[in-house]
Design goal:
The complex is a heterodimer of chains A (221) and B (460). Chain A contains 8 helices and 4 strands; from the N terminus they run H-H-H-H-E-H-H-E-E-E-H-H. Chain A has 221 residues and is an alpha+beta fold. Chain A folds into 2 domains: 59 residues, NADH-quinone oxidoreductase subunit E (Arc Repressor Mutant, subunit A), CATH 1.10.10; 98 residues, Glutaredoxin. In chain A, strand 3 and strand 4 form a beta hairpin. In chain A, helix 2 packs antiparallel against helix 3 and helix 3 crosses helix 4. The radius of gyration of chain A is 22 Å and the shape is globular. In chain B, the strands form 3 sheets. Chain B has a 5-stranded mixed beta sheet. Chain B is of the alpha/beta class and 460 residues long. Chain B has 3 domains: 231 residues, Rossmann fold, CATH 3.40.50; 84 residues, Ubiquitin-like (UB roll) (Roll); 91 residues, de novo design (two linked rop proteins) (Up-down Bundle), CATH 1.20.1440. Chain B is built from 18 helices and 12 strands. Chain B is 42% helix and 13% strand. In chain B, helix 4 crosses helix 7 and helix 15 runs antiparallel to helix 18. Classes of the chains: A alpha+beta (221), B alpha/beta (460). Chains A and B meet through helix 2, helix 4, helix 5 and helix 8 of A and helix 2, helix 6, strand 4, strand 8 and strand 9 of B. The complex binds flavin mononucleotide, iron/sulfur cluster (SF4) and FE2/S2 (inorganic) cluster. FE2/S2 (inorganic) cluster binds next to helix 5 of chain A. Iron/sulfur cluster binds next to helix 16 and helix 18 of chain B.
């Protein structure tokens, strides 16, 4: 490649590279394409032309082929996204929970429309399709983290945190049997007499989950 | 013995005292994703039972007897699918788990992978044994990062505990003479975890295989079916996350226990998902054959505003009008087919009266248009290009009655012409919206305004 100053991404990560290549049997080296792209993108917020060539060389396909694969997937980015990549679900269930309005609020707040990154590289905005969190919409994915049931108030808090440079902790909402299963688990006898079982028995822990997962009491009940 | 008379009635209600939450027993419980938690509650005993006391054929027969139908959407009988694998011929065989969950309205598999990863690994291990596949592949959609991390950690834990890898449940020889049990080498089985990157079509089984192989995720021509030539051209069986989790319990508790739940053509316990304006949306586990009413009212707390339609199984399944009759329908494969719809993934979406149906369908159509892989003409030209344009025209108030007729004809003609079911997945709900809500389309073209103008739905 004609970017001589750029150090190849995997040059100083031989173990990681080997581990990824070793995952795939039967000479399926090409299967490593997506995992390698993920590694680069997680580190650099996009997969540049130079990185794409490097990956293509490693896997043994042409850069054109690698590009063809990359362009198929909507979460691989050719250009850097922001430090906070805001992905708003726009599909039906989220729409019914205010997803369109959430998107418009983000447009107003960031001055971006879907597909854009701001000049400072802080925010980028992308409309995405159903994130598989339809019961707790509207959903905003920031980088790899889901924020569920993002109300107006919650959005303001999230934006404030991000503007202060912090990655906000996940807002993990629950509903349905994500809540009531806890009751079932508590009613269940601490299964095995077997040694060393964890101390989670009948009268155990309240529904509250520490560590950033805010357990909501069965929706609006 | 009067066997017939004594046969207890099938369990078809969540409130039947014999029903237990099973698949979601650990979901929502803190720390449930660890091996320690799982094993302390009897985890991996089903796999041990299968691998040490049952032949592969016996496992397949048990799954057949359970009546389990695939939970990925099509409802194909799982045991039957497993029996399609060719005889062992020295080629590598694969068992694949489809964790691409992307059909709008579906969100059950995510929690299974996040909160109970070992239940899934155990199901894959049992399935691997049944079809004699030593490699499992778990394809997780790219957005499910927490699920991916939890699965990765769980696979590492299972490997460290000897539950994956070489000689799983190997035993040494014991006793002598007639009583002797010979040594067993155990079963070699490991799982490759692979992450997608945001493409709905990767959920289609052959597209998923192409994606895994590092190709563009276009569906493949069938036949050959995956059992003949799947991953890397080798014999492959693919099932959904919930299907594998169900297998764990079918083996653990027996086919009879499983088949005691459900209706004639739909057995077992199922994860239904409820979204839209209801008091308590979420995933609810219920026996097959439970009614919409039980899900939406008894568990979900009822709609928070007047409703007009129910989408029964993900956005590709034809909607049903909201009525007492619909609410009393059992949510099973046969009933849904009889009323012209499908159970799909069991992702129930309640559509409120105040939501313009044309606008809602424009949203659904845009989804499938966006996700069309572009491989075949009917889908590329019809679904991805023409239909979304027509909806734009309608919503701009520029549509005509002729447009409506044309659209109806178009989606009718589209059915069955495309290379894979994605085009039908778009055409079917559009057709249903015309069938039940044509008056809203007509109102829009006649007045240039929707019958139901956009209202704010966003919570403070
Ligand atoms: C367009 C399309 C998307 C699909 N998406 C999924 C999916 O996200 N998850 C899934 O399990 N099955 C999905 N399927 C069904 C799979 O092709 C396959 O039938 C299923 O994974 C088999 O598993 P099962 O028999 O256990 O249901 C999809 C099918 C089509 C045509
Ligand atoms: S129907 Fe659509 S998604 Fe399926 S192969 Fe054709 S273009 Fe691709
Ligand atoms: S519709 Fe937004 S997560 Fe499914």
């Amino acid at each position: 490649m004609d970017l001589p100053t750029l150090q190849p991404f995997f040059e100083d990560k031989p173990e990681l590279l080997q581990e990824i290549l070793d995952r795939y049997p039967l000479g399926g080296r090409r299967s490593a394409l997506m995992p390698l792209m993920w590694e680069v993108q997680r580190a650099e917020r996009h997969v540049s032309e130079a990185r794409l060539h490097e990956i293509a060389d490693i896997v043994g396909v042409t850069a054109t082929e690698a590009k063809g694969v990359m362009s198929f997937y909507s979460t691989f980015h050719e250009h850097p996204v922001g430090r906070f990549h805001l992905q708003v679900c726009r599909t039906l269930s989220c729409k019914l929970a205010g997803g369109d309005e959430l998107y418009r609020a983000l447009v107003a707040e960031t001055g971006l429309v879907s597909g854009e990154t701001d000049a400072a590289g802080t925010f980028s905005l992308q409309n995405v399709e159903c994130l598989g969190s339809c019961g707790t919409g509207p959903v905003l994915q920031v980088n790899d983290t889901y924020h569920e049931r993002v109300t107006r108030t919650r959005l303001a808090e999230l934006l404030a945190e991000m503007r202060a440079g912090h990655e906000p902790a996940p807002t993990r909402e629950r509903g349905g049997d994500n809540v009531s299963a806890q009751k079932a688990a508590r009613a269940e006898p601490a299964a095995e007499p077997a040694a060393g079982g964890p101390a989670e028995g009948p009268a155990d822990a309240p529904a509250d989950a520490p560590g950033g997962s805010s357990d909501e009491e069965g929706g609006a009940a | 013995m009067s066997a017939v008379a004594d046969k207890p009635a099938a369990i078809t209600s969540r409130f039947d005292p014999r029903f237990e939450v099973t698949l979601y027993r650990h979901v929502g419980v803190d720390g449930a994703h660890t091996l320690e938690h799982y094993r302390a509650r009897g985890g991996y005993r089903a796999a041990e039972k299968a691998l040490t006391t049952m032949t592969p054929t016996q496992v397949i027969d048990e799954v057949k007897a359970s009546g389990l139908r695939g939970r990925g959407g099509a409802g194909f009988p799982a045991g039957l699918k497993w029996s399609f694998m060719p005889p062992i011929d020295g080629r590598q065989r694969f068992i694949v788990c489809n964790g691409d969950e992307s059909e709008p309205g579906s969100f059950k598999d995510r929690y299974l992978m996040e909160d109970d990863p070992h239940q899934l690994i155990e199901g894959m291990l049992i399935a691997g044994w049944a079809i004699q596949a030593t490699i499992g592949i778990l394809y997780v959609r790219g957005e499910y990062y927490l699920a991916y991390e939890r699965m990765r950690a769980a696979i590492a834990e299972a490997r460290a505990a000897g539950l994956l890898g070489r000689g799983v449940f190997a035993t040494e020889a014991e006793g002598e003479g007639d009583e002797a049990t010979p040594a067993s080498p155990g079963f070699d089985f490991d799982i490759i975890l692979h992450r997608g990157a945001g493409a709905y079509i990767c959920g289609e089984e052959t597209a998923l295989m192409n994606s895994f192989e590092g190709l563009r995720a276009n569906p493949r021509l069938k036949p050959p079916f995956p059992a003949q030539a799947g991953v890397y051209g080798r014999p492959t069986t693919i099932n959904n996350v919930e299907s594998f989790c169900s297998v764990t319990h079918i083996i653990g508790r027996g086919a009879a226990w499983y088949a005691a739940m459900g209706t004639d053509d739909s057995k077992g316990t199922k994860l239904y998902q409820l979204s839209g304006p209801v008091a308590r949306p979420g995933v609810y586990e219920m026996p097959m054959g439970a009614t919409f009413r039980e899900l939406i009212f008894d568990l979900g707390g009822g709609p928070t505003e007047p409703a007009k339609a129910i989408i029964p199984g993900g956005s590709s399944t034809p909607m049903l009008p909201w009525s007492d009759e619909t609410l009393d329908l059992p949510m099973d494969y046969g009933t849904m087919a009889k009323v012209g719809s499908m159970l799909g993934t069991g992702g129930v979406i309640v559509v409120p009266e105040s939501q313009c149906m044309v606008d809602a369908m424009a949203n659904v159509v845009r989804f499938y248009a966006h996700e069309s892989c572009g491989k075949c003409t009917p889908c590329r030209e019809g679904v991805a290009t023409w239909l979304p344009k027509m909806y734009q025209k309608l919503l701009a108030g520029l549509g005509t009655r002729e447009d409506l007729t044309l659209m109806e004809e178009m989606v009718r003609n589209l059915r069955g012409t495309a290379f894979c079911p994605l085009a039908d997945a778009c055409a079917m709900p559009v057709a249903a919206s015309f069938q039940h809500f044509r008056h809203e389309y007509e109102h829009l073209v006649d007045h240039g305004q929707p019958k139901y103008p956009t209202v704010s739905r966003w919570a403070e």
